[in-house]
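Example 9 (inverse folding). The structure is encoded as follows.
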């Protein structure tokens, strides 16, 4: 599954390998062998990579302000979920992103 998050500045994109800077939106995706699964290895993608991989898209009316909404989901996001069980990267841990590099 995928989950949109806000970077706290210590997230590395698994696509282009760049650091996703503070307050930038990014996406976590459970993947296995590069395929999205319900439960798997967490990958982190910046907006650009998310768009490229089809994990995110801009939708909505680009009218008056020329602004579009970015969504990480095929459907529309209607109700924001409480993020109580979201384990966001904490600034003091500094090792949250991409720490899982266990060999098989
Ligand atoms: Zn990227």
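The amino acid assigned to each position is listed next.
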């Amino acid at each position: 599954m995928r989950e949109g998050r806000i970077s706290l500045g210590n997230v590395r994109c698994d696509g282009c390998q760049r650091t996703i800077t503070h307050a930038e939106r990014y996406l976590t995706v459970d993947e296995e062998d590069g395929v999205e699964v319900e439960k798997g290895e967490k990958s982190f993608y910046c907006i650009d990579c998310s768009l490229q991989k089809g994990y995110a898209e801009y939708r909505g009316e680009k009218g008056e302000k020329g602004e579009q909404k970015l969504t990480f989901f095929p459907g529309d996001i209607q109700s924001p979920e409480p993020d109580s069980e979201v384990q966001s990267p904490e600034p003091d841990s500094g090792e949250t992103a991409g720490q899982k590099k266990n060999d098989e």
